[in-house]
Specification:
Blueprint lengths: L3 H6 L5 E3 H6 L4 H7 L7 E4 L2 E3 L7 H12 L4 E3 H7 L11 E6 L10 E6 L6 E3 L2 E3 L2 H9 L5 H13 L5 H10 L6 H12 L4 H10 L8 E2 L3 E2 L5 E3 L3 E3 L4 E5 L2 H4 L2 H17 L2 E5 L1 H6 L1 H16 L7 E2 L6
Parallel strand pairs: 5-6, 13-14
Antiparallel strand pairs: 1-3, 2-3, 4-5, 7-8, 9-12, 10-11, 10-15, 12-13
Helix pairs in contact: 5-6, 7-9, 8-9
Length: 315
């Protein structure tokens, strides 16, 4: 039998076609036997073998899926998004591939093949052909029905400047309409200025208060130009700030000190501030609505302090 090292040299990260093995002198019978229990190899997809008995890595699954699709396949969806550097996409258990519409390759196992008439120009990352970032991200989220999952992925993509919200919208308008309603709603939240899933949840809660629409993440300055803070939500007409303070991001010594300093600046400037944890947004939204209304009333009942914002975006 041909030496394992020689076979590995003709593979992609240990992934190889059975037909290539045959060309190298390994018979179909030997390949079949080696992929059976007790053998040294693993059958991954029809006609595709891993030259090891271990569980395939993500890269080996990607290589196997590309070998299965042949032709000009691109990796898209969440595996592509991870190769671009995103951390929030979930492991969906399959490799999503794009193929030009004229090829007749079917999905098999963990290789999900989508044929498309709008086949994009590939981007290369670490030797893997990928769909462009906006296409890859949207191909992933349009298969997801969990709003917070879609929020976390699109918010991360936007704030890492991997995918511009304008380009994401254009991709939604030009591509398939299947599964695009939820991404469109999340992009509306991003356009408003939310920077986290907690802020998106908070925006939904605020809209149940009946109060004027707030601004989101705008810098505040005193009358003499000193920076005060950048509240998650800001009612400029009454100088009322609402902060969504997560324990995860405010429990460290430095984060806690920064929060105290921020609150001291709010107090010294006459700003009324309400602090809410993300857990309370989820667990007791009605109580949070009542607290927002109460905070707004307190702010309305005192003279507005001379606090200025430098930019604004209103829902």
């Amino acid at each position: 039998m041909v030496e394992q090292e020689e076979l590995w040299a003709h593979s992609r990260f240990g992934v190889i076609r059975a037909s290539t093995l045959e060309q190298l002198g390994v018979s179909q019978t030997t390949t079949y036997q080696q992929c059976q229990p007790g053998g040294r190899w693993l059958h991954l997809l029809p006609g595709i073998v891993l030259l090891a008995r271990s569980q395939p890595t993500v890269r080996q699954r990607i290589e196997a899926a590309l070998l299965h699709a042949r032709h000009d396949a691109l990796v898209t969806g969440f595996e592509a998004a991870r190769l671009y550097g995103l951390r929030t996409p979930p492991d969906v258990g399959f490799i999503h591939l794009l193929l030009p519409h004229n090829y007749k390759v079917l999905s098999s196992g963990f290789a999900v093949v989508e044929r498309t008439k709008s086949f994009p120009t590939p981007w290369m990352r670490d030797g893997v052909p990928l769909a462009p970032p906006e296409r890859a991200v949207l191909d992933g989220v349009r298969r997801v029905r969990n709003r917070n999952t879609v929020r976390s992925i699109l918010i991360e993509a936007a704030h890492k400047k991997l995918a511009d919200p304008f380009e994401l919208r254009r991709e939604l308008d030009t591509g398939t309409k299947r599964g695009t309603a939820l991404p469109r709603r999340v992009l509306n939240e991003i356009d408003f200025g939310v920077r986290s899933v907690a802020e998106a949840d908070a925006l939904q809660v605020w809209r149940g208060t009946g109060l004027p629409s707030p601004h989101c993440n705008v810098p505040l300055f005193s009358a003499t130009g000193e920076f005060i803070g950048m509240p998650d939500f800001w009612c400029d007409e009454v100088a009322f700030a609402w902060e969504i303070d997560s324990y995860q991001y405010h429990s460290g010594r430095d984060e806690y000190a920064n929060t105290l300093s921020r609150n001291a600046r709010y107090m010294a400037s006459g700003v009324v501030v309400l602090q809410t944890s993300p857990a309370r947004l989820r667990d007791d939204p009605d109580a949070v609505v009542a607290e927002i209304r109460a905070g707004y009333r307190v702010a309305s009942d005192r003279p507005r302090p001379p606090v200025q914002m430098r930019a604004a975006g209103v829902a």
